[in-house]
Every structure is written in structure tokens, then in C-alpha cells.
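INPUT
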Amino acid sequence: DTEVTQTPKHLVMGMTNKKSLKCEQHMGHRAMYWYKQKAKKPPELMFVYSYEKLSINESVPSRFSPECPNSSLLNLHLHALQPEDSALYLCASSQQWLNEQFFGPGTRLTVL
Amino acid sequence: GENVEQHPSTLSVQEGDSAVIKCTYSDSASNYFPWYKQELGKRPQLIIDIRSNVGEKKDQRIAVTLNKTAKHFSLHITETQPEDSAVYFCAASSDSNYQLIWGAGTKLIIKP
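OUTPUT
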């Protein structure tokens, strides 16, 4: 399996909802990433997990909470989001930190 | 910190012609330079990358050149085809920098 998968593909949520985004890879990669991408902009790094430990948190608001249950899974828990958080959320993985990154298809999030 | 500038922001070329996208970086310690292609509504996909120990790399119609002295690298696409239409992002990273620093992107339009 040479793909990164993400669910759901689309998510619409209200500002009081709690939801989770999921990411999975079975390539044996030890680094996993969450990015946020706004239209016509490059991906913006949010979190990096290396060997299942949170290595980087790019000053992301606490309404975004990452979790890495095992080496193949990465979750992003969402709570009390704002409309400006609406974006494409991309998961990526790489064999090790800073090697070639493989991106998932993303979750298109809309916050009402 | 590292900064990556990418030009042009939009490039329109006739089908069959060549396209060149240029990026400059500021951190002389940068040693990894990937190029990603992102079609509308799709994930970024790595199309080619280069490390600082080589000056040029080719893969069929795509090539990347690196000038470490001038701190710039370029993507060359020959014999362009309609399916080359997309946004292209360059990026740079170093062993001491924990993340990819992305360029702003170039929208490539292939005119039939």
C-alpha cells in the first residue's frame, strides 16, 4: 500500500461541534504531518509526529488537538472551531523527518 | 529564517512549448529542494526533487536545476501537455530546519 488515506473527504460542522479527522498510512513511515491549506496558498504546517511523538506544534490554537494512536494512524480532533478555520486539511507522511512527503487527498472542512 | 520566493505566480504557455518556474532561497544551509504539483481539488504530489550534492536531475519531460552559489533552483517542463496544467510549488529544507519552507506557487496554464 503506497497511499495515505484520509477520512472524511468533506466535513461541515458548526462552531460548537466536536469532530475528528483521520489519516492512515501503511508504508512504514515514521513521520506524519498535519497541514492546513487555504485556497491558492501553499500548505501550512500544523503538527509533526516523529516516531509517534509530537515533535512540532506550529503555535496552533488549542481547538485543534492532534493524536497519534500508533505508527500508522494520525487523528486531528476539532472543537469549537471558527469560520476562518475552513480549509483543506492535508495529512502527509515520510519515511523519516524531511524525507519525501506523501500527501493524503485531504479533508475539505467548512465551519458554519 | 528561511524564505523561498517563487516566480512567476502565473505562467501561460502554448501546448508543446517549454515552461520554466524559478525559486530562490535565503538559507545557504538548505539541502533538499522538492517540487510539488497540485491539480485543482487534489493533493500535492511530488514530481521531482533534488539534493544539494547534484546540480541537475531529469525525469522524462521534467528537470530541476540547482545553483547553490546563487541560491536558486528551477523547474523545467518540456513539450508541455494539457495535463501539465496545475499549481506548482517549490520548497526547501535543511538538516537544521525542521520543516519544508514553501514557495507561493505558480499556476501553469497550457493553452491548446
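end of record. Chain A has a mean pLDDT of 93.
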